[in-house]
Amino acid sequence: VQLVESGGGLVQPGGSLRLSCAASGFTFSRYAMSWYRQAPGKERELVAAINSVGDSTNYADSVKGRFTISRDNAKNTVYLQMNSLKPEDTAVYYCNAARINLKYWGQGTQVTVSS
């Protein structure tokens, strides 16, 4: 099982980034997918989630209206479009796959929002 995140980097406040998470080694279309983030000194928190077929999403209040989660089951990939980024969005972003009692994590990608 592999979840490989990409797309992180340094961006100025107000800017945008698109994170991708490429999955392999399991039946991607059967898993709900989520993005979590962890800032220094803070606990990991859920940012956005999408169900297995992609027709239901939910978001943390802090990112509603700015972030969009989506998935392409043909490409085994989940995305996080992040707009209007703020310094408080700075964190390591992790991809998560979940089904019943199974959970898989990626290695994370750093997002830094700074001028």
Shape: globular
Which spans of ≥5 residues are poorly predicted at pLDDT below 50? none
| Biggest pleated sheet | 7 strands, mixed
**Total strand count, please?**
11
**Nearest-angstrom radius of gyration?**
13 Å
- Structural category is mainly beta
Mean pLDDT: 97
CA-CA gap between termini: 37 Å
Oligomer: single chain
Beta-strand content: over 45%
N-to-C SSE series?
A: EEEEEEEEEEE
Helix content: under 10%
Q: What's the helix count?
A: 0
Question: Care to describe what's here?
Answer:
It is a single chain. The protein is mostly beta strands and 115 residues long. The chain is built from no helices and 11 strands. The chain has strands at 2-6, 9-11, 17-24, 32-38, 45-50, 57-59, 67-72, 77-82, 91-99, 102-105, 109-113. The strands form 2 sheets. Strands 2, 4, 5, 6, 9, 10 and 11 form a 7-stranded mixed sheet that branches. The protein is globular. The termini are far apart. The model has no long low-confidence stretch (mean pLDDT 97).
